[in-house]
């Protein structure tokens, strides 16, 4: 299920989303002494990251991670880790913990197994999940073109993290599975621009989740996805 929240400007969206997320994170800290959030890459969340980084949260008790990451060096322009460090782990949020998905040079079975254990111990279930969406309807690195898509969308998948190799986008990826992301307590889909609104409408008007994986978050009854969109 979903609820759509439209804003006239991206700046207004960034402020509203940052207000909502900071409130959730602080409530989680008050309740259990810690909070976790997974964010997505791309250019869309930069403004949101910057606003959120100034919020008065007990950031030392917050763990930030990514919904997915390309297996590239942190110095690469393609690195979502770099994006988060340069835009979110700044200002008051500079003291937050960061859970690295990209660890080591090779994404081998042992590395993936270690990351899965650590994710279950330190992060899951996530208090906040911020998703993006590609023109093909992928979200995180749940790509419709990948050979791993059935496993990635399997609600019974016991792996929190998995390897994905898209055929329509560069770089090997590591991504949280739908099974792990679907357990998030608060799910947001952050979009901007007319083209993404058209993709959203297409996703809402069909039901093939393997064609457009974002449908799993928009159409699953027990997931309350909050769509935040601005021109």
What does this structure look like?
The chain is an alpha/beta fold and 231 residues long. It has a single domain (2-138, 180-230), classed as 3-Layer(aba) Sandwich (Rossmann fold). The chain contains eight helices and ten strands. The chain has helices at residues 10-32, 46-52, 80-87, 109-122, 149-153, 178-181, 194-204, 215-219, and strands at 2-7, 35-39, 62-66, 68-70, 97-98, 128-131, 161-164, 173-176, 187-192, 225-230. The strands form two sheets. The protein has a seven-stranded parallel sheet with strand order 1-10-9-6-2-3-5, sandwiched between helices. It has a three-stranded antiparallel sheet with strand order 4-8-7. β7 and β8 form a beta hairpin. α1 (10-32) crosses α2 (46-52). It is globular, with a radius of gyration of 16 Å.
List keywords for this structure.
single chain, 231 residues, alpha/beta, Rossmann fold, 7-stranded parallel sheet, 3-stranded antiparallel sheet, 8 helices, 10 strands, 19% strand, globular
Record the SSE blueprint.
Blueprint: E1 2-7, H1 10-32, E2 35-39, H2 46-52, E3 62-66, E4 68-70, H3 80-87, E5 97-98, H4 109-122, E6 128-131, H5 149-153, E7 161-164, E8 173-176, H6 178-181, E9 187-192, H7 194-204, H8 215-219, E10 225-230
């Amino acid at each position: 299920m979903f609820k759509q929240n439209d804003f006239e400007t991206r700046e207004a969206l960034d402020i509203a989303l940052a207000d909502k997320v900071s409130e959730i994170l602080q409530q989680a800290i008050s309740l259990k002494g810690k909070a976790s959030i997974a964010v997505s890459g791309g250019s869309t969340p930069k403004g949101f990251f910057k606003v959120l980084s100034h919020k008065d949260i007990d950031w030392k008790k917050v763990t930030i991670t990514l919904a997915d990451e390309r297996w590239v060096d942190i110095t690469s322009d393609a690195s979502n880790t770099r994006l988060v460090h340069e835009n979110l782990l700044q200002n008051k949020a500079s003291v937050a913990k960061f859970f690295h998905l990209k660890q080591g040079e090779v994404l081998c079975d042992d590395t993936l197994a270690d990351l899965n254990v650590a994710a279950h111990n330190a992060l899951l279930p996530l208090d906040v999940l911020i998703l993006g969406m590609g023109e093909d309807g992928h979200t995180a690195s749940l790509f419709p073109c990948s050979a791993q898509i059935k496993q990635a969308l399997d609600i019974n998948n016991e792996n929190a993290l998995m390897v994905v190799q898209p055929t329509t986008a560069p770089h090997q990826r590591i991504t949280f599975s739908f099974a792990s992301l679907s357990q998030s307590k608060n799910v947001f889909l952050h979009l901007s621009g007319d083209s993404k609104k058209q993709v959203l409408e297409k996703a809402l008007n069909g039901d093939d989740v393997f064609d457009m994986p974002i449908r799993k978050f928009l159409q699953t009854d027990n997931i309350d996805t909050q769509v935040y969109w601005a021109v």
